[in-house]
Amino acid sequence: SNSMSIKVSVEFSLQAGKQKKFLDVLGNVLSDTRAYYGCIKVETYAGDNGSSIILIEECGSKEQQQAYFQWRVDTGIIDAIGPFISAPTGVKYYAIRSE
Q1: How far is CA 97 from CA 3, 44, 62, 81, in A?
Q2: HSE-CB for 20 with a 13 A CA cutoff
Q3: 5, 11, 65, 77 from 56: Cα distances, Å
Q4: Where are the alpha helices (DSSP H) in the chain?
Q5: pLDDT per residue as tens digits for the range 72-96
Q6: Which residue among 14, 20, 42, 89 is least crowded, i.e. fewest CB within 10 A of its CB?
């Protein structure tokens, strides 16, 4: 059951003019994200300011999502996104309410 599933927001603050290219990079990695154990859904939102991207992920549990994050770190995501971001990536966890 998905009763314990969570939402996670991952906010990327981007350097000026790099949103479109960063979306291309994300497009290349999100298929792996969606296939990863515990991932239920990922949606990408592009800020209309042109300098931010937010991913909204639904995951089976916080532990599964953190295992996924660790895998991303281990496989080099920090180096891949470094040239695009302007501030530390913000991650927040949310319990899903029924109303």
Answers
A1: 10, 21, 16, 32
A2: 1
A3: 13, 9, 12, 18
A4: 19-35, 62-74, 77-81
A5: 999 988 888 999 999 999 999 999 8
A6: 20
